[in-house]
């Protein structure tokens, strides 16, 4: 097994993908809109991936609700954004916390019915009024304790539904003034000021999985973004205290093209190729390199560069999947009940 999560090109596994995946055995996969047509098609795809791997497989999706949702009507309902819960929290915190749990339970049961085992949720990025809108209404609020409380409820609901949660984007993306899909955000705030961003991750340090931020924090490491920085990854492990499975954000994002990301070859102006990017993220301390595009040439470069997953990372992966299996595993048919309760509270759409 190699320490990579790969995307796929289309609605089924192509013959080229099947040959590559069988030869290198990626640790898991991630699905996007291009991989989704109908419930029957998604179930067939996830079953094929699981059968090929022969194990309980991390199959990831970004199903946050609001503007970040790969599963959409008419086959699946719309779910609220993080801001919806933040707005309720201002009026009734306990109601908002329970609504967050129910929302995550509904998401998890829906995903589990499709064979999807990991949701890249909750965002623990503390919203900042000066921050880029790439976080914006996806965030659970402007206050760290509120974000942590709603994030914990989200993790609880996902676990109850038998799906693994991923806290992101560690150690915090809310303050960033740029979109890391497009360019490298460079955060110049002091270490003291950054404590506001770190706090939700500290409070949820026992989460099963986390995703790094392609953000350079000059107070921690002025030369490398979090994903590629041994200094920042050590801070995540030792200071924040996160001990679960740590994956990179997508290696294809343009943030890694900036010299201050650490994404250039040593002593050169040339960008690292995808194999080198994957190795750099692992050398920094990530357990898993995430590659989302499904581009075959890029996946082959990563597969050729990586060796087998390290024993510690494999243990963390097993623990994360066991964490998801330790919940109540609400039957998939029960997700509609949780949705009905959300609709009664005025959250979400029918």
TrEMBL record:
The keyword Transferase does not apply. Keywords: Glycosidase, Hydrolase. One of its GO terms (biological process) is peptidoglycan turnover. Residues 14-314 form the Glycoside hydrolase family 3 N-terminal domain. It comes from the Bacteria. SUPFAM superfamilies: (Trans)glycosidases. Pfam families: Glyco_hydro_3 (PF00933). It is an enzyme of class 3 (hydrolase). Its EC number is 3.2.1.52. One of its GO terms (molecular function) is beta-N-acetylhexosaminidase activity. It catalyses: Hydrolysis of terminal non-reducing N-acetyl-D-hexosamine residues in N-acetyl-beta-D-hexosaminides. Belongs to the glycosyl hydrolase 3 family. This is beta-N-acetylhexosaminidase. It comes from Polymorphobacter multimanifer.
